[in-house]
Amino acid sequence: MTLNFGAGLLSNHYNNSPIALLKAVFPNYNFRPWLFNQVPFAYWKDIRNQIEFLKWIAETESLSQLEDLRPTHIKSHGGDALLKLYDHSMVDMLKTINAFLESNGISLVTNAVEPKLSYRPMNYWSQLGNQKEFMSELAKKLGFEVNDYERWYSISVKARLFVDPI
């Protein structure tokens, strides 16, 4: 018996998709396309695939909320092309996915309304209102009122911002 490397099998029965072949032959195993060298053509354009991928990352990395998701999580698990689809904007990606989820009554994480992201769009920090909101959230997280100016002396703001982002 000659195997001919399975070219006929793939082209005649599975549209040249090794993943489709694997899913058919092993239906009880949940193959994750992003773990292969390459995902199928246009795979990331289907938002359901994006959601499945993010859920898997959340489980794999033990993330409890969307705000914990980083580009490094996505890249390290084979999602470079997904990020590229959104011009490498985590904000745009999560807004699009959240809009889809909300319109279908689904949530990736419990009590998720709108993700609070550590990554902000370009020029976000050039607006004083955004800076004030950030400092107010930081003060609240540290347990004091934003206008309790004397308390600001007692913390290392720079160290706190990078170690424990809001």
How would you describe this structure to a colleague?
- The protein has 166 residues and is mainly alpha-helical.
- The chain has 3 domains: 1-31, no CATH class; 38-119, no CATH class; 123-166, no CATH class.
- Helices cover 49% and strands 0% of the residues.
- The chain contains 9 helices and no strands.
- The radius of gyration is 22 Å and the shape is elongated.
- The relative contact order is 0.08.
- The model is unreliable at 109-117 and 157-166 (pLDDT under 50).
> How much is the average pLDDT?
76
**Domains (count):** 3
Strand content: under 5%
Query: Uncertain spans, ≥5 residues at pLDDT below 50?
Result: 109-117, 157-166
Distance between the termini: 62 Å
Helix and strand pattern: HHHHHHHHH
* DSSP E strands, number: 0
Helix segment tally: 9
Label the overall shape. Answer: elongated
- Radius of gyration from the CA trace? 22 Å
Helical residue percent? 40-55%
Summarize the main sheet.
none
Structural class: mainly alpha
Task: Walk me through the topology.
Blueprint lengths: L6 H7 L4 H8 L21 H14 L10 H6 L3 H6 L4 H14 L24 H15 L6 H4 L4 H7 L3
Key features of this structure:
elongated; disordered C terminus; single chain; 166 residues; 9 helices; mainly alpha; 3 domains
In short:
The chain has helices at residues 7-13, 18-25, 47-60, 71-76, 80-85, 90-103, 128-142, 149-152, 157-163.
